[in-house]
UniProtKB/TrEMBL annotation:
Cellular component terms (Gene Ontology): cytosol
Cited PROSITE patterns: HTH_RRF2_2 (PS51197)
Keyword line: DNA-binding
GO molecular function: DNA binding; DNA-binding transcription factor activity
Domain of life (superkingdom): Bacteria
NCBIfam families on file: rrf2_super
Pfam families for the chain: Rrf2
Name of this protein: Transcriptional regulator
């Protein structure tokens, strides 16, 4: 199941993508419009800023804004930053692979085969959608 952190991160990014002229938006405005706790949203936006998706401007007229064009923001990258691995099992992951302790043979493991298919299809959907695709 998708975490609230990832759900709220996607909602905040789409809200920012819809701003005219990439105008900075204060956290309180995003939180109010998207029904997200300000404190929780602060941590999410900081993570997205540190990952290179957002910029921040201090002072009057300040707030968060996108530093990349929405069409250049892959939802797979957003997902990995906010949620972590796309695969549901560590042995089915490309980027976060770990061998399962209870598995004698990965090549015959039915759970791994199934979860690899789930990963591949989920990845296909996430990689084929940019922030622009879902925001507009």
């Amino acid at each position: 199941m998708l975490s609230k952190k990832t759900k709220y991160g996607i909602k905040a990014l789409t809200f920012l993508a819809r701003q005219k002229d990439n105008t900075p938006v204060q956290i309180a405005e995003i939180a109010k419009n998207e029904h997200i706790s300000i404190k929780f949203l602060e941590s999410i936006l900081l993570l997205l800023r540190n990952s290179g998706f957002l910029g921040a401007k201090k002072g009057k007229g300040g707030g968060y804004y996108l530093i990349k064009d929405p069409k250049d923001i892959s939802m797979a990258k957003v997902y990995r930053i906010l949620e972590g691995p796309i695969a549901l099992l560590p042995c089915a992951s490309h980027n976060f692979y770990e061998k399962c302790d209870d598995c004698d043979d990965e090549t015959t493991c039915a759970a791994r085969r199934l979860m690899t298919q789930v990963r591949d299809n989920t990845l296909k959907v996430l990689e084929s959608n940019s922030l622009a695709d879902i925001a507009f």
